[in-house]
Specification:
Layout: H1 2-14, H2 18-31, H3 36-48, H4 52-65, H5 70-82, H6 86-99, H7 104-116, H8 120-133, H9 138-157, H10 161-174, H11 179-191, H12 195-208, H13 213-225, H14 229-242, H15 247-259, H16 266-279, H17 287-291, H18 298-312, H19 314-323, E1 336-342, H20 351-360, E2 366-372, H21 380-388, E3 391-394, H22 400-409, E4 414-417, H23 428-431, E5 437-440, E6 450-453, E7 457-460, E8 464-468, E9 483-487, E10 516-520, H24 529-541, E11 545-550, H25 554-566, E12 574-577, H26 582-588, E13 594-596, H27 605-612, E14 617-620, H28 629-636, E15 643-644, H29 647-659, H30 664-673, H31 683-704
Parallel strand pairs: 1-2, 1-4, 2-3, 4-5, 5-8, 8-9, 10-11, 10-13, 11-12, 13-14, 14-15
Antiparallel strand pairs: 6-7
Helix pairs in contact: 1-2, 2-3, 3-4, 3-5, 4-5, 5-6, 6-7, 7-8, 8-9, 9-10, 10-11, 11-12, 12-13, 13-14, 13-15, 14-15, 15-16, 20-21, 20-31, 24-29
C-alpha cells in the first residue's frame, strides 16, 4: 500500500505537482517513517520550494538508513549549500564522488560548490574532467573559464605572473574570443618580460573591443618598453580620447613626451596630474614618472608614493600579515646577515656603484647575500657581482610569495632593495616583510610611501631610506615615510675599478677641435624647457661652443634640434653621443669642458661618472631627493662652488666658467688628484660608515622588542 502511494507521489513530482507530491510523501511516512526514498524525495520537494533547512533534515534521515546512496548524498549537498553550509556540502559530494567516480552530475555540483568557497584550483580540476567526457558542454566550459580567470587574477595580484599566464592561456582555450582574458594574458606576459607577446594579446583584444581605453594604455606600455615611443604616445592619446579620466594613461603620456622632449602643453598637463595626486588617491600615478615632473614638491611625491602603495600593494601587505613571518632575534650572533636585492645585477649603472662596496664589506662582522630578480646578461659585470656575495640567489622566476619565503628561509636580518619603483620593480616582496629590517637605497631617489589601513594605521613599505645630510635636510623628514639613515658624506657609493677605454680622438666624437664643449649626458626625460632655454642662451653667448648630449631616441634629437633653431642655433652645434659601452662612454668624457646638470631630476650615477673622469659638473638644487643628489656628490668631491640654488645663479655661473675656462683647470686637477681619496670615491671608508648604520638599525630592531 505505502509503495503504491509512494509511486503515485513520484508521478505527481515528475509532473511538477509539488504540493500533491509532498502530501502523498507525508502520508507514506505516516505509515512507514523509515521509508528512505520518501524521506529523500520529500527533502527534494522542500529544496525545490525554498525550504532548505527542512530539506537538510529530511534527507539526513534518509542517509541514516542508506548512508552510501549517491542520489541522497547529491541532493543532501545541494540542500546544505542552499542552507549556507557549503563546507558540509563539499564533504557530502566528495563522498558521493568516491562512490560513483564517473557520475558527471555529482562532479559538476561539487565543482560549483567549490567555486562558491573560492577553491578555484579544485573546482577547475573537476570541470576539466567533465569537459574531457563532454567536450561540447558549453555550461561546463563557461564555468571552467570563469574559474581559470579567477585563478589567473589571484595569481597576478600575488605576483605569480607565470601562473597567471598559464591560467589565462587555458581560459582562452575555452573561450578564444574573450577580450578581458586576452587583456589579462597580455598583462601577465608584460610582467614576465614578454613585450611582443603582450602586444599581440592587446591587439587581439582591441579587435574585439576597439573602444577599451585600458587596452590602449597597456599596449602603449609595451610599445614604450620596446622603444616604440611614437606608437606608445599614440596609444596613450587614443586611451585618453576614449576615457579622459584614465589617470595612468595621462601620466605615461606626459613622461614619454618628456622622453622625446615634446614640451607642448606640458605645464598644464603636469598641473592636472599634481591635482590628481592631492585629490584622487585612487589615481594610478607612477611615483618614478612623478619625480621628473617640474614643480612637484617633496610633500606631493610622498603623497604620490602613499597612493601607489595603497593601490598596488595592499593585498600583498595583508597577505604578509597572514603569512606572519617569524623573525628570531639573535642578540648573540656573530654576524649580521645583509641581503641586497635588485633587478640590475648586470651591466648596468648600479653595478658601477655597488660592486666594490660588496667586495669591501667586513666579513668578520657581516654576511652578504644577493637576491637577483633581473636577467643574467652573462657579462663580466654580472660575474663580478655574483663573486662579491657570500651567497647569491636568482629569484627571477619566483612569484612574490615564494621569493619572500626564500629570503626568510635564508634568515636575512636586513633586506636592502636597490631597485625601488623603477623598471622591473618587485617591491611586493618587501611588502610581505620577509626580513626584520628593510631598507630602500639607490634605485629610487625618493620615499617609497606607506600603506594606510582603514584610514588610520600607517605602515611604511620600507623601514629605512639611506640618504645623506645634504639630500634630506632634517626639516624635510616629514616628507619621507621611512626613517632617514644618513651617511656622513654622500649617499652614493662608487666603484674605483670601473673599466675605462683609451681616450678616443676628438674627431671620433664628432667634436670640433677648438670648441668649448658644454655637455649633458642625462637621459632626455630629465631635460626641461627651462634648462634647454638656458643652454641655448649660453650657446648664443659663447659663439665657439657646442652642446654635447646623449642620443637617447630619434624623436628627442629632432625636437631638440628644432628648439635650438628657434634660438638661431645651427643644428651642427648640437652633437649627439651614440650609445656605447660604459668603458667607452667614460673615456669620451675627457673631451667635455663643463657638464650642465638638470632639475628637478639631477644627474646621479651620470654625475659621479663625470667627476670620476675629472669633468666638472654644474648643478642646481631643489627641495626633493632627486633634485639634490648632484649637489651631494659635488660637496663630497670638494666642489661646493659648482652647487647653485637658482636658475639665475646656475646660468650666470655657467656663462662665467665658459668665458673663463682657465677656472675649470684647477677643478679638473682636484678631481684627478683626489680620485682615490675624496669622500666621494673612498669606497673603503664608505663601507665602514654604511656598516655602522646597519649595526645601528639592527640594535634599534632589538630595542623595539
Amino acid at each position: 500500500m505505502s509503495q503504491t502511494l509512494y509511486l503515485t507521489a513520484v508521478n505527481h513530482h515528475r509532473a511538477g505537482q509539488l504540493a500533491q507530491a509532498e502530501s502523498l510523501y507525508q502520508r507514506v511516512l505516516q505509515s512507514n517513517p523509515a521509508h528512505a526514498d520518501a524521506l529523500h524525495m520529500l527533502g527534494v520537494v522542500f529544496y525545490q520550494t525554498g525550504r532548505a533547512g527542512q530539506a537538510v533534515s529530511a534527507i539526513s534521515q534518509a542517509l541514516k538508513i542508506h548512508p552510501k546512496n549517491t542520489d541522497y548524498l547529491n541532493h543532501y549537498a545541494l540542500s546544505l549549500r542552499a542552507a549556507s553550509q557549503p563546507e558540509a556540502a563539499v564533504k557530502s559530494l566528495q563522498q558521493a564522488v568516491l562512490l560513483q567516480p564517473k557520475d558527471l552530475d555529482i562532479q559538476f555540483n561539487l565543482a560549483n560548490t567549490l567555486l562558491t568557497l573560492d577553491r578555484h584550483e579544485e573546482a577547475a580540476g573537476y570541470y576539466r574532467r567533465i569537459l574531457r567526457a563532454m567536450p561540447k558542454n558549453d555550461e561546463v566550459r563557461e564555468a571552467l573559464c570563469h574559474c581559470l580567470t579567477s585563478l589567473g587574477n589571484q595569481a597576478h595580484s600575488l605576483g605569480d605572473f607565470a601562473r597567471a599566464e598559464a591560467c589565462f592561456e587555458e581560459a582562452l582555450q575555452c573561450n578564444p574570443h574573450d577580450a578581458a582574458t586576452l587583456y589579462n594574458l597580455g598583462n601577465a606576459q608584460r610582467e614576465l618580460g614578454k613585450p611582443a607577446e603582450a602586444a599581440r594579446q592587446y591587439a587581439k583584444a582591441l579587435q574585439l573591443t576597439p573602444d577599451d581605453a585600458d587596452i590602449y594604455n597597456n599596449l602603449g606600455n609595451v610599445q614604450r618598453e620596446s622603444g616604440q615611443l611614437d606608437l606608445a604616445i599614440a596609444s596613450y592619446r587614443q586611451a585618453l580620447a576614449l576615457n579622459p579620466q584614465l589617470y595612468h594613461a595621462k601620466v605615461h603620456l606626459v613622461h614619454q613626451k618628456q622622453h622625446i622632449c615634446d614640451w607642448n602643453d606640458l605645464d598644464t598637463e603636469i598641473a592636472e596630474i599634481r591635482n590628481w595626486v592631492r585629490t584622487r588617491p585612487q589615481a594610478q600615478i607612477s611615483p618614478f614618472a612623478f619625480l621628473a615632473m617640474p614643480g612637484t614638491t617633496a610633500e606631493e611625491q610622498k603623497l604620490c608614493a602613499d597612493n601607489w602603495v595603497n593601490n598596488r600593494y595592499a593585498s600583498l601587505i595583508e597577505h604578509g600579515r597572514q603569512l606572519n613571518f617569524q623573525h628570531q632575534k639573535k642578540p648573540g650572533q656573530e654576524k649580521i646577515r645583509i641581503a641586497y636585492m635588485s633587478a640590475d645585477f648586470r651591466l648596468h649603472p648600479l653595478a658601477f656603484l655597488i660592486s666594490e662596496l660588496l667586495e669591501l664589506h667586513d666579513r668578520s662582522r657581516f654576511e652578504i647575500i644577493g637576491f637577483s630578480y633581473g636577467a643574467d646578461d652573462g657579462t663580466d659585470a654580472r660575474k663580478r657581482i655574483e663573486k662579491a656575495f657570500d651567497a647569491f640567489h636568482d629569484i627571477r622566476c619566483l612569484p612574490e610569495i615564494d621569493a619572500a619565503r626564500k629570503i626568510h628561509d635564508c634568515d636575512i636580518d636586513i633586506l636592502v632593495d636597490l631597485t625601488g619603483f623603477t623598471q622591473n620593480s618587485r617591491c611586493g616582496i618587501v611588502a610581505l616583510r620577509p626580513a626584520p629590517v628593510s631598507v630602500s637605497w639607490l634605485g629610487f631617489p625618493g620615499t617609497m610611501g606607506s600603506f594606510t589601513k582603514d584610514g588610520m594605521v600607517s605602515l611604511p613599505l620600507f623601514d629605512y631610506l639611506l640618504t645623506d645630510h645634504f639630500i634630506t635636510l632634517p626639516e624635510a623628514a616629514g616628507n619621507y615615510a621611512e626613517q632617514l639613515a644618513a651617511l656622513p658624506h654622500s649617499y652614493q657609493p662608487n666603484d674605483r675599478k670601473r673599466p675605462v677605454d683609451p681616450i678616443p680622438p676628438r674627431a671620433d666624437c664628432a667634436l670640433p677641435d677648438d670648441a668649448f664643449v658644454f655637455c649633458c649626458f642625462n637621459q632626455t626625460f630629465k631635460i626641461t624647457a627651462d634648462f634647454f632655454n638656458i643652454w641655448m642662451r649660453l650657446l648664443n653667448a659663447v659663439p665657439n661652443s657646442v652642446l654635447w648630449l646623449l642620443d637617447c631616441n630619434r624623436w628627442a634629437r629632432q625636437n631638440l634640434i628644432e628648439q635650438a633653431e628657434l634660438y638661431g642655433i645651427a643644428a651642427e652645434r648640437l652633437i649627439f653621443a651614440p650609445r656605447v659601452s660604459l668603458a667607452s662612454h667614460l673615456a669620451r668624457h675627457t673631451h667635455a669642458d663643463l657638464f650642465l646638470d638638470t632639475l628637478p631630476y639631477n644627474a646621479h650615477t651620470t654625475c659621479s661618472d663625470a667627476l670620476w673622469m675629472g669633468l666638472p659638473v654644474l648643478t642646481c638644487t631643489g627641495d626633493t631627493f632627486a633634485s639634490r643628489v648632484a649637489g651631494s656628490l659635488l660637496k663630497a668631491a670638494g666642489l661646493d662652488e659648482l652647487v647653485t640654488g637658482s636658475l639665475k645663479d646656475y646660468e650666470a655661473k655657467a656663462l662665467h666658467l665658459a668665458c673663463n675656462p682657465q677656472l675649470l683647470a684647477p677643478m679638473r686637477q682636484k678631481l684627478i688628484a683626489e680620485k682615490m681619496s675624496s669622500p666621494l670615491f673612498d669606497t673603503a671608508s664608505f663601507a665602514r660608515s654604511l656598516e655602522a648604520i646597519y649595526e645601528d638599525m639592527w640594535h634599534a630592531y632589538f630595542n623595539r622588542g
